[in-house]
């Protein structure tokens, strides 16, 4: 697997400038995870995102204006939990200076948070407000951690949760090496959203969260080797 990931990472830098090892390929996997968890949260947790905070800020405005199908409480909870996860990663970065080790530690913690959300889905007797709040908090906290570690690693054009600038770059810049990474990011997010929605609407949210947990665990183990 390690060799395959390194080859995939090299293809993301066709100009031969990759200095991040296998991390670019792992960030593509994390982008798929973002699509999956946002599918689960938007379709099953009252139209809220756990990865896309821009959407939540907009939803908060809609909810305060009186939109009946949106929850200001859920939007605020998602943003607050995301901030808490990013804050925790920032504190961890003060103790773990090596970017590779920080990625492993944060991704392992993210895996446990999504695994905890899966356990909630499997064991909750109902889908009431408390269960939804717990799932939003767990998933958004994990995505805040992911976003913060990706920001610190700073691989060009691979942000894992945001596509606005990616799409802008595709349209604004001439074709080149960054185009490959931008297209990979766009394809990964679309794939995650498509698969996450199909699993959520089919077998159920547990299936989608199982897939997300498996991808995060794979990324953690692969980063160790």
Automatic annotation (TrEMBL):
Any Pfam family hit: DUF1275
TM helices/strands, residue ranges: 21-50, 102-125, 131-150, 183-201, 207-224
Keywords (A to Z) from UniProt: Membrane, Transmembrane, Transmembrane helix
Coiled coil: none
PANTHER family: SLR0142 PROTEIN, UPF0700 TRANSMEMBRANE PROTEIN YOAK
Protein name as annotated: YoaK family protein
Gene source species: Streptomyces ehimensis
Native organism taxonomy: Bacteria, Bacillati, Actinomycetota, Actinomycetes, Kitasatosporales
